[in-house]
């Protein structure tokens, strides 16, 4: 069963969503060649606790050892920050933050380009971002989950990129990963019908090469099997009476917060 949030719960999701968004805006200035992903994690951790008076949800979640996920180049998702991993010019890095405030979760990520991007990296990152935007634009009461997956998949594949199948968006609220599963591929006119008050993430992972992924021995880091580049963007979305509200909206977003 997918839960429908009350007005009070929605207000709390707006608060935590705004904090998660603000954190991605904050970290942008630190993403430069020479910085380690371990340092980015420490900056986010301190900002969450000291400044935002919130809790980093990934820390100790099912044993995850850090406060954010940092996924560089061929790392699809769940990359573990480390002092040994130093960013270099032309890298792409997804920073995924999830905060808990007043019992509710806000989950969002974006892929940043480090220094001067490569043509291929920029194209992948932009296509992934646009696929998320098209998925969000499909959200309205009466639409179906398959409409979201279809919008994402058809755009990404038109650009000759591939969709990761193993990980999906998810319902979110008091629980980090709840029902429904939001697939980033599928057929229009299939799947659960959206209703006002549902809140879920949409978080497409798009590969430059083949869709296959593998899990590294650390049991967290997911990489592309062919070691080609991969990107991801994520927002937490509320279904409104007329469309969508992006609860983790940032100033650099292309879509309006409410649509
Ligand atoms: N934030 C990720 C998501 O979008 C989940 C990270 S789980 C962690 O669902 F344990 F790796 F942090
Ligand atoms: Co998520
Ligand atoms: Co996330």
Walkthrough of the structure:
- The protein has 259 residues and is an alpha+beta fold.
- The protein is built from 4 helices and 15 strands.
- It has helices at residues 7-27, 37-51, 119-137, 145-158, and strands spanning 55-56, 69-72, 75-77, 92-101, 104-113, 162-163, 169-171, 178-182, 199-202, 205-207, 213-215, 222-224, 230-232, 235-239, 244-246.
- Strands 1, 2, 4 and 5 form a 4-stranded antiparallel β-sheet that branches. The protein has a 3-stranded antiparallel β-sheet with strand order 3-12-11, with no helix packed on it.
- β11 and β12 form a beta hairpin.
- α1 (7-27) packs across α2 (37-51).
- The chain is globular, with a radius of gyration of 17 Å.
- The protein starts with 6 loop residues before the first helix and ends in a 13-residue tail after the last strand.
- The mean pLDDT is 98.
- Bound molecules: 2-amino-4-trifluoromethylsulfanyl-butyric acid and cobalt (II) ion (2 copies).
């Amino acid at each position: 069963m997918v839960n429908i949030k009350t007005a009070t719960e929605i207000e709390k999701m707006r608060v935590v969503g705004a904090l998660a968004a603000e954190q991605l805006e904050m970290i942008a200035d630190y993403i430069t060649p020479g910085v380690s992903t371990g340092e980015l994690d420490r900056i986010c951790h301190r900002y969450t606790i000291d400044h935002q008076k919130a809790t980093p949800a990934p820390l100790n979640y099912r044993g995850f050892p850090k406060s954010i996920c940092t996924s560089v180049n061929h790392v699809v998702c769940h990359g573990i920050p480390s002092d040994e991993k130093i960013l270099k010019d032309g890298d792409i890095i997804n920073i995924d933050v999830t905060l808990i405030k007043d019992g509710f979760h806000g989950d969002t990520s974006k892929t940043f380009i480090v220094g001067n991007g490569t043509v291929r990296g920029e194209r992948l990152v932009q296509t992934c971002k646009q696929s998320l935007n098209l998925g969000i634009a499909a959200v309205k009461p009466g639409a179906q989950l398959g409409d979201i997956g279809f919008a994402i998949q058809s755009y990404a594949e038109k650009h000759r990129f591939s969709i990761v199948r193993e990980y999906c968006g998810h319902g979110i609220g008091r629980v980090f990963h709840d029902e429904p599963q939001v697939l980033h591929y599928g057929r229009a006119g299939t799947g659960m019908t959206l209703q006002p008050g549902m809140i879920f993430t949409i978080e497409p992972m798009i590969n430059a090469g083949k869709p296959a992924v593998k899990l590294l021995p650390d049991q967290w880091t997911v990489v592309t099997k062919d070691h080609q580049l991969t990107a991801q963007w994520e927002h937490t979305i509320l279904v409104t009476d007329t469309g969508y509200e992006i609860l983790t909206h940032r100033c650099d977003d292309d879509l309006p917060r409410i649509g």
